[in-house]
Design a protein that fits this description.
Gyrase A, domain 2; YgfZ_barrel; 17 strands; single chain; Elongation Factor Tu (Ef-tu), domain 3; folate-binding; YgfZ/GcvT; 6-stranded mixed sheet; alpha+beta; 2 domains; globular
Length: 326
């Protein structure tokens, strides 16, 4: 029996709004999982399913991507990279049961095997994460491998670590013996601060890719050929039909906003539904921060609230990227 998760104690890392992030944290990403595609048709199959350009994805890079239904609504957002003899797709565990059968639907006509793996997915985060990876993994690529582990760069302070339950204890002990061992809430905070989109089961098939800023994080190719939902995605870009975007909002809160929660917005003296929470983080000093899909024409000083705490007003923060950049 593999007991890596009980040999190391991963706990919520309490942060207030004035605290610094830990210099190095090992994070148990138990709510993330990985799907693999192996076989000679895997590249072409994914090219016809995902929003990213799989054909141009080199072995040293990873990319965001979306998987849509025929109407262009997102089933999931994933990180795609070369893995072993095929591809790895890291996405939320909550969408696996509904999204994976859809990804497999036409695979019977292609030479590709699609499998939800039992891989252990960990995160390494903090100012020292890059130096730690550089010390233990050869090369300077954004995707690196050794005999037991694959590491994938997320941003300047984060890496995904993908290994097996058999080797997880050794990887954790070797890479980061002095790190903070944290649960997935800390990874959520990083995702919110960097405005990285995700889809959970409760938000599945609710948004087109541009409504969660997938184009702003290079998760959509507008030059590749057809893929499922492509017509809607292209129309949103070239005809301006998309009226929503994902923003960072912050405010007072006594509990953590959850994916799918509704945020109200002020309209004169009234309030109406303004948006949907994608991910939230609760600080220790009764403040919270969240990613929320909102109308993309709201004023920067718009006010928001949750219906169950109407006295606590929320506001938008600046995004770390330009939604209008080409």
């Amino acid at each position: 029996m593999n007991t890596w998760s009980t040999q190391h104690t991963f706990t919520p890392f309490a942060l207030s709004t004035t605290d610094s992030l830990p210099e190095l944290a090992m994070i148990n990403l138990s709510d993330w999982g990985m799907v693999t595609l192996v076989g000679p048709d895997s590249k072409s199959y994914l090219q016809g399913q995902l929003t990213c350009d799989v054909v141009s994805l080199t072995a040293d890079k990873s990319t965001f991507s979306g998987h849509c239904d025929a109407k262009g609504k997102l089933r999931t957002i994933m990180r795609v990279f070369h893995y072993q003899n095929g591809y790895g797709l890291v996405q939320r565990q909550s969408v696996m049961a509904s999204q994976l059968p859809e990804l497999k639907k036409y695979a019977v006509f292609s030479k590709t095997e699609i499998t939800q793996t039992a891989a252990v997915v960990l995160g390494l985060a903090g100012a020292h994460a890059q130096a730690t990876i550089d010390h233990h993994f050869n090369g300077d690529a954004d995707v690196r491998h050794n005999d037991t582990t694959t590491v994938v760069k997320v941003d300047n302070e984060r890496w995904l670590i993908i290994t097996t339950a058999e080797h997880a204890d050794t990887i954790i002990t070797t890479l980061a013996p002095n790190a903070v061992y944290a649960t997935t809430e800390l990874w959520n905070l990083y995702d919110i601060k960097t405005a990285m989109p995700r889809i959970d089961s409760i938000t599945e098939l609710e948004f087109i890719p541009q409504a969660v800023n997938l184009q702003a994080v290079d998760g959509i190719s507008f030059k590749k050929g057809c893929y499922t939902g492509q017509e809607t995605v292209a129309r949103a870009k070239y005809r301006g039909i998309n009226k929503r975007a994902m923003y960072i909002v912050a405010g007072a809160a006594t509990q953590c906003p959850q994916a799918g929660d509704a945020l109200e917005r002020s309209v004169g003296e009234n309030w109406r539904k303004g948006g949907t929470v994608i991910c939230g983080y609760q600080y220790s000093n009764n403040q919270a921060i969240a990613l929320v899909v909102l109308p993309n024409d709201l004023d920067d000083d718009s006010q928001f609230r949750f219906a169950d705490t109407p006295e606590a007003l929320w506001h938008k923060l600046d995004l770390p990227y330009d939604l209008n950049a080409e």
